[in-house]
Amino acid sequence: MKYKILEKNSKAEVTSLFTSVFTSSEGENEGRLIGGLVSELSSNIDNEEIICFGAYEEESLIASIFFTRLRFSDGILVYMLAPVAVSTEHQGKGVGQALIQYGLNELKNRSVAIAITYGDPSFYSKVGFQVLSENTIKAPVRLSMPEGWLGQSLTNEPIPTINDRPTCVREFSDTVYW
Ligand SMILES: CC(C)(COP(=O)(O)OP(=O)(O)OC[C@H]1O[C@@H](n2cnc3c(N)ncnc32)[C@H](O)[C@@H]1OP(=O)(O)O)[C@@H](O)C(=O)NCCC(=O)NCCS
């Protein structure tokens, strides 16, 4: 497996991967919704606000993840992992965990302090995420599933309490994703 930092020119293959994975796992509407989100995110990859990683096997994209910046007034570097997709035929073989570890290491190399995600704790706890209280770090938008708000420190320090509410990238501003 080869890992790559993806650029805007990967938009078509990344969008097609997410659309087909989410259509298979969650149905046609969710496939269309997440495909639309990924099409917008991948059009705007800039490696700062929006970072995208991919895993390839024999030149074909089998998994991809996005990290987007959550901006706090004090400038602390915090990124949110979402969405994540592993092609249907490669699921359950460790590909998702390996790609997320690769992405988290890249963020550490960039001196990022905290990674956040919003999803199933039983999967994301395998790659170091723990339940995060909104008293510690607030979500940018009201959460429909607060128990899915997860975080991990990427430094030797514990996650600090931050009082202000962050802003997310424009692509995630629709409450349908939260
Ligand atoms: C969820 C997903 C990213 C996991 O990647 P993966 O490569 O299949 O997972 P891995 O092989 O690295 O890890 C497997 C472990 O995660 C667990 N797991 C896999 N998919 C899971 C899911 N949807 N929910 C909860 N746990 C899950 C498995 O139980 C397994 O645990 P075990 O090793 O103790 O049996 C992938 O299955 C996927 O793309 N699913 C469809 C889309 C999706 O749900 N994306 C995540 C939300 S954004």
What does this structure look like?
By secondary structure, the protein is α+β, with helices and mostly antiparallel strands. It is built from four helices and seven strands. It has helices at 11-26, 28-43, 95-109, 121-124, and strands spanning 2-6, 50-57, 60-70, 78-86, 114-118, 130-131, 149-153. The chain has a seven-stranded mixed beta sheet with strand order 1-2-3-4-5-7-6. It is globular and about 45 Å long. The structure holds coenzyme A (COA). Residues 21-22, 25, 82-86, 91-97, 119-120, 122-123, 126 line the site of coenzyme A.
Layout of helices and strands, plus pairs?
Layout: E1 2-6, H1 11-26, H2 28-43, E2 50-57, E3 60-70, E4 78-86, H3 95-109, E5 114-118, H4 121-124, E6 130-131, E7 149-153
Parallel strand pairs: 4-5
Antiparallel strand pairs: 1-2, 2-3, 3-4, 5-7, 6-7
The structure holds coenzyme A.
Largest sheet: 7 strands, mixed
How many helical elements?
4
Tell me the β content.
Answer: 25-35%
Which structural class should the secondary elements be placed in?
alpha+beta
Rounded average pLDDT: 98
Question: Could you say which small molecules are bound to this protein?
Answer: coenzyme A
Q: How do the helices and strands follow one another from N- to C-terminus?
A: EHHEEEHEHEE
- The helicity comes to 25-40%
Radius of gyration: 15 Å
Record the strand order, biggest sheet: 1-2-3-4-5-7-6
Straight-line distance between termini: 32 Å
Strand runs, count: 7
Model regions low in confidence, pLDDT < 50 over at least 5 residues? none
> Quick one: overall form?
globular
